[in-house]
Amino acid sequence: MTLTSTSTKYTLSVLLPSNIQPEMVTISANKGDRLRIVADAFGGDECHYEWQISFPPYDIDMAAVYARFDPEGRLTLDVRRRIKVY
Question: Which domain of life is it from (predicted)?
Fold first, then answer.
């Protein structure tokens, strides 16, 4: 999984094997500004992928996590950063 960031968002991206379908991916928000991503394929070609991403405290807006799965099997998550007020 790759992670890039800008001043407004983080983008996480991974190319999953062709046997992983969108319904086999679970994304959950965890305490402490963490995201957990799990991708499981069962049946003939079993595989399991799991990531837990920790962000700096109060840096992300957990209500603004957007995921997309393209036809080539790339899972991309955009996570909006909180606006810092000084």
Answer: Eukaryota
- DSSP letters, 64-77, are EEEEEE-TTSEEEE
pLDDT given for residue 86 in this prediction: 64
Token pair of 38 as six digits: 């799990």
Under CATH, which architecture does the 2-80 domain have? Sandwich (2.60)
- Structure confidence by residue, pLDDT tens digits, 4-60: 999 999 999 999 998 899 999 999 999 889 999 999 988 777 899 999 999 999 999
Distance CA 20, CA 23 (A): 8
| Pairing of the two strands 74-81 and 60-69 | antiparallel
Domain ranges of the chain: 2-80
Amino acid of residue 2 = T
